[in-house]
Amino acid sequence: MKKLFWKDPYLTQCIATVTRIEGNHITLDKTILFAFSGGQASDSGTIHGYPVAAAKKIGREIVYEIDAAHDLQVGQQVKVVIDWEKRYKIMKLHFAAEIVLELMVQNFNNPPKIGANITAEKARIDFQWNGNISEVLPMLQKRIEEMIESNAPILSEFSDEEQEIRYWKIDGFGKVPCGGTHIKNTGEIGSVLLKRGKRLGANKERIEIYLC
């Protein structure tokens, strides 16, 4: 399966061929519909007009769940369309979270990340952290605003294409393994707001990120 969302995450539609059908679960020879991975939510969209109810990554394949009453057949060409508004919000929030995480790594001795989730509404990162993480939010807010203002180019590439291992890189800032969908430059993020999330227990803190 060719994952076109890596080659061009700005594609909003493509023509693909159905390669397997098991009831209402199908696979394609190529796709622009990202499936939940690394905390990044799945895309929403349609395949041949059928809404995609779920997307699941199995090995290097992505299996899509559609309407059980579909009439698709193996070998059929279908039009795949994503919900671009949702995708773009996720891309911006995802990279805002990547910047926050890298700032935490660089400035606070790499505190263990214990969870992450990125949707179209907000992003969150959970850390093992001794104390109230709101104390460092002003610094993080200032630094991410500087990164956004710099409009720095973001390189997204394979470190191992056969194993589908990818990374993002900003010159002078960082190089981080990540298989998500990325914007082209930091300026696309726009304005963000960082907040302390709900308490998770002893020595566990959450940072939430919102688009303004």
Automatic annotation (TrEMBL):
SUPFAM superfamilies for the chain: ThrRS/AlaRS common domain, Translation proteins
Biological process terms in GO annotation: tRNA aminoacylation
Ranges for domain Threonyl/alanyl tRNA synthetase SAD: 165-208
Superkingdom classification of source: Bacteria
Molecular function GO terms recorded: aminoacyl-tRNA deacylase activity; aminoacyl-tRNA ligase activity; ATP binding; metal ion binding
Signal peptide extent: none
Keywords associated with the record: Metal-binding, Zinc
Needed cofactors: Zn(2+)
Cited PANTHER family: ALANYL-TRNA EDITING PROTEIN (PTHR43462), ALANYL-TRNA EDITING PROTEIN AARSD1 (PTHR43462:SF1)
Name listed for the protein in its UniProt record: Ser-tRNA(Ala) deacylase AlaX (Editing enzyme)
Organism in which the protein naturally occurs: Pelosinus propionicus DSM 13327
